Amino acid sequence: MLTDAQFQFLKSIMGDDQISTGESARSLHSRDQSSHTAHMPDMVVWPDTTEQVSRIVAFANRERIAVTGWGAGSSLEGNSIPLRGGIVMDFARMNHILKVYPEDFQIVVQPGIFYKDMNKSLAQHGLFFAPDPGANASIGGMIANNARINAAPARDSRSSARRVR
Asked: Which of 31, 96, 108, 111 has a CA 20 to 30 Å removed from the CA of 158?
């Protein structure tokens, strides 16, 4: 359970519409599409920027608060279930294509973009992202879960990722 001081600090990083301790938000983020048991987080946050992600993760590390990433919640493996409570970081607002390099077959995206939305944008450049997990998964979730499509892990489809500290 988060203390009031911890909650207030996290609230200082996020806007009022980017943080929730409400029952419905916490319940929605307590389970994915798997048959695994739900576990309620203490709080859900929706960051907009890499800086917010970095500050939240650094704070959570200092305070020993668990952080669970959330893409689309479409995992069948239970990877997005917050087993230790803490903070669920929902990347839904970080869903943009930042840069396309058509000549290099590369793209820079935020983790919350859904692969079908990304492919619609890539089609304008005659490109597509081949892995198709079936569900409209987020790119961050696919990489975090090492989604396998045709025996090739999603991580093999990326050439780099920014590590947030």
From this structure: 31
Burial of residue 104 (number of CB atoms within 10 Å: 0-12, 13-18, 19+): exposed
pLDDT digits (tens, 9 = 90+) for 93-142: 999 999 999 998 888 999 999 988 999 999 999 988 877 777 788 888 88
Q: Report whether 20 contacts 42 (CB < 8 A).
A: no
Longest dimension (CA), the chain: 51
What's the whole-model pTM score?
A: 0.83
Of 132, 127, 75, nearest to 101 (Cα)?
A: 127
59 token code pair: 């704070």
